[in-house]
């Protein structure tokens, strides 16, 4: 007991979690002080060059070192499974302090957008009655998730003052719910070789399911099914291709990617070398979205409509948060006439809808730097399906919450299908500088702009769909982590 008090006195006791809460076999303590804002900290030591490792050292000097985890050494699902299992055991034994700590618990994750999405997926799969809200430390190249909720997009300081300042913001931050989006991808299993999952460099939040329910319409013999999800965006086309080139280069030469400004300069350079700025000249027409896939959206329950996409669109984005490519908002704010004529709304993060935006090239994207700039608004929906054609190209590029991959396409006409639908909501922590808007915040409905645009959307009624909604509720970012049955 004396050791605990001595240690807590020179640490940030408002955030301190004692060992017996974190570890099953630790001696039960009765702390004299219940932390106001107990936190569990996850840091990707490989993010931000050396910054991740430096942050770990600083957090461990300010908090209990056992409440700060290096994601390079231990996955968040194992940590949270252990901690929440222990909390339930302590509560069952009548520990009121454990119950209060669980009720106040907040999570901090430091890393790129992919790292933050990984933790969000794990929290979703825990199926907790009262899941903890999450604060994100920007420690990547884009940092769209932290920027959306007011945590900035520049890599943070790693000294004690900087970390103390961040912890104080976490204590006063408000909770905000955001929609989560379920992704199902079906592709043909290779007709020769191993029957193991196709060896793709997939993001953390997209995993193979060897067995899925027979009632799932996307489950077919001879196909491999992947399930996962995202919170910020899913994109396809040229922007994902540039991102894939950047990540591939960083994997081969990690020593060259330790500075955020240098990383962003390299990203811009790759945009030029990949032809993103001169797509009409060097980008094959066969890679345009309309040539690659048929796109359908669900306007109302059970009714699909084909979405017309201009032949000039080379990149398409399904966007949930108002931040893409380092803080840009491709949707903007439609004016009142557009809202009425095309049934458009502002991009709220908890309205059960995501925005579909198209881009012709990087020059088109640069219009976002203008005060009222936006991409080509295509649709707002809660469900979309991409069905890829038999194409002259054997692959395309996709990206989900900052993590890109090279997606094989079938050469013999077997369809690759990607379907996105609403899953649920998770809780984030937001500062006063938050850019994300909630549909439940009355002030969010007051800001509209009076500009016009020339976007046109054509749609045609097509087919109905009657698949089982329960089948789409499987998230798949990890196995569902349940509390022990004896609890």
Describe the structure in your own words.
Keywords: ATP-binding, Kinase, Nucleotide-binding, Plant defense, Stress response, Transferase. One of its GO terms (biological process) is phospholipase C-activating G protein-coupled receptor signaling pathway. Monomer. This protein is α+β, with helices and mostly antiparallel strands and 487 residues long. It has helices spanning 2-9, 19-22, 51-62, 76-92, 96-104, 113-126, 144-148, 160-172, 238-252, 260-273, 279-282, 289-292, 336-342, 362-366; strands at residues 39-43, 68-70, 106-111, 134-138, 174-188, 206-209, 223-230, 233-237, 293-300, 303-307, 315-319, 354-359, 376-381, 383-388, 395-400, 403-408, 417-430, 459-464. β15 (395-400) and β16 (403-408) form a beta hairpin. α4 packs antiparallel against α5 (96-104), α4 (76-92) runs parallel beside α6 and α9 crosses α10 (260-273). It is globular and about 65 Å long. The two termini are 28 Å apart. 42% of the residues are buried.
Main traits of this protein?
487 residues, alpha+beta, 8-stranded antiparallel beta sheet, 6-stranded antiparallel beta sheet, 18 strands, disordered N terminus, ATP-binding, plant defense
């Amino acid at each position: 007991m004396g050791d605990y008090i001595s240690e807590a006195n020179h640490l940030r006791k408002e955030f301190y979690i004692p060992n017996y809460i974190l570890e099953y076999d630790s001696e039960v303590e009765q702390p004299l002080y219940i932390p106001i804002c107990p936190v569990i900290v996850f840091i990707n030591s490989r993010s931000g060059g050396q910054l991740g490792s430096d942050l770990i050292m600083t957090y461990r000097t300010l908090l209990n070192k056992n409440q700060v985890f290096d994601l390079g050494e231990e996955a968040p699902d194992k940590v949270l499974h252990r901690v929440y299992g222990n909390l339930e055991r302590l509560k069952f034994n009548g520990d009121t302090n454990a119950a209060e700590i669980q009720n106040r618990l907040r999570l901090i994750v430091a890393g790129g957008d992919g790292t933050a999405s990984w933790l969000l997926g794990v929290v979703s799969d825990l199926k907790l009655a009262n899941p903890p809200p999450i604060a994100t430390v920007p420690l990547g190249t884009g940092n769209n998730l932290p920027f959306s909720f007011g945590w900035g997009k520049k890599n943070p300081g790693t000294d004690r003052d900087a970390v103390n300042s961040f912890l104080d913001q976490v204590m006063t931050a408000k909770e905000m719910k955001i929609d989560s989006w379920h992704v199902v991808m079906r592709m043909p299993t290779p007709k020769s070789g191993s029957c193991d999952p196709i060896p793709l460099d997939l993001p953390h939040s997209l995993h193979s399911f060897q067995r899925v329910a027979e009632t799932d319409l996307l489950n077919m013999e001879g196909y491999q099914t992947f399930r996962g999800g995202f919170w910020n965006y899913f994109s396809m086309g040229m922007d994902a291709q540039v991102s894939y080139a950047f990540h591939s280069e960083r994997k081969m030469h990690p020593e060259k990617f330790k500075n955020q400004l240098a990383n962003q300069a390299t990203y811009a350079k790759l945009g030029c070398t990949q032809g993103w700025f001169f797509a009409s000249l060097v980008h094959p027409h066969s890679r345009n979205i309309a040539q690659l896939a048929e796109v359908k959206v669900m306007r109302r329950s059970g009714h699909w409509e084909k979405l017309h996409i201009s032949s000039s669109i080379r990149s398409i984005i399904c966007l949930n948060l108002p931040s893409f490519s380092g803080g840009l908002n491709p949707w903007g704010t439609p004016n009142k006439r557009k809202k009425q004529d095309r049934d458009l709304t502002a991009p709220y993060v908890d309205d059960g809808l995501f925005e579909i935006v198209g881009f012709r090239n990087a020059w088109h994207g640069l219009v976002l730097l203008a005060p009222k700039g936006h991409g080509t608004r295509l649709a707002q929906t809660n469900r979309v399906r991409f069905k890829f054609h038999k194409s002259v190209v054997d692959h395309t590029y996709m990206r989900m919450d900052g993590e890109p991959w090279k997606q094989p396409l079938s050469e013999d006409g077997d369809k690759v299908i990607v379907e996105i639908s609403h899953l649920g909501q998770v809780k984030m922590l937001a500062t006063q500088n938050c850019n994300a808007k909630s549909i439940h915040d009355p002030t969010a409905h007051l800001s509209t702009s009076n500009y016009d645009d020339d976007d046109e959307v054509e749609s045609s009624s097509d087919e109905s769909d009657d698949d089982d909604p329960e089948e789409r509720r499987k998230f798949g970012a990890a196995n569902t982590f349940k509390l022990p049955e004896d609890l």
